[in-house]
Hints:
Layout: E1 7-16, E2 24-34, E3 39-43, H1 50-57, E4 65-70, E5 83-86, H2 98-102, H3 104-108, H4 113-126, H5 142-154, E6 160-164, H6 172-189, E7 192-197, H7 200-206, E8 209-214, E9 219-225, H8 240-252
Parallel strand pairs: 3-7, 3-8, 5-6, 6-7
Antiparallel strand pairs: 1-2, 1-4, 8-9
The chain binds adenosine-5'-triphosphate.
The site of adenosine-5'-triphosphate has 12 residues, from strand 2 and helix 1.
Amino acid sequence: MSNQAFIELENVQKVYGQGGKNPYMALSDVTLSINEGELVSIVGPSGCGKSTLLMILSGLTSHEGGTVRVGNETTSFDATRDVGMVFQQALLLNWRTILDNVLLPAEILQMPMKPARERARELLDLVGLSGHENKYPKQLSGGQRQRVAIARALIHDPKLIMMDEPFGALDALTREKMNLELLRIWEASGKTILFVTHGISEAVLLGSRIAVMTSGPARMAAAIDVDLPYPRTLDMKTHEAFGAYTRQVYGLLGM
Ligand SMILES: Nc1ncnc2c1ncn2[C@@H]1O[C@H](COP(=O)(O)OP(=O)(O)OP(=O)(O)O)[C@@H](O)[C@H]1O
């Protein structure tokens, strides 16, 4: 593995509608570096540019100022193949089975289907859904559908997984269970994960680091190292150190 960070953002700026009547500065100054295999939580108020940042990294939108580098001297990065995304809604195709939903990116990227099918079964096992391969999305709970979305994000073995409020639509208990599942999947897969959330305790529970963004104008306020041991457990939320991290984040957000 390279000593060079996997993602390097320096003074990144994003202006929507540049050159038009109403340009809007969605990001004014974002500087952050992320190593391979890190799970970084990104927290910040609504509208502070979290999704914009993910879109820049996935090559879906441009940036106007600063520099963005993804990949390093030992690990190349091609945004069209090396990104897996998970959104707040699972966005499954109702007419396709669970297995065929997981296979969708493999089809789009024209991967050889026989090994992809095998890999899809392994991933469904990894996310705790073996035995559900031939069901349809409507037969699954919200939490199960998000597990399918995670398996789908992993099928093409991307180097970077970006998750945008993936558990925001789940009830509190399912969300906590999914947090633990995600930690297990992260440790098993070794992937670099960026995890956007509004939940401060979720950010602390998951992240090896927390990038705190503030708005007006949107910028990166701080990146906090979270020195809590892995595997993380829910009872850590009652520990003094956990409380200290959440207080620090609330403080940075001015709350
Ligand atoms: N295509 C666009 N054109 C103009 N403005 C946009 C566009 N997309 C986003 N914005 C604006 O940029 C700002 C940042 O949006 P973004 O979706 O990145 O924020 P966010 O932090 O992800 O918000 P939330 O937490 O509510 O999802 C918002 O004020 C939004 O209105």
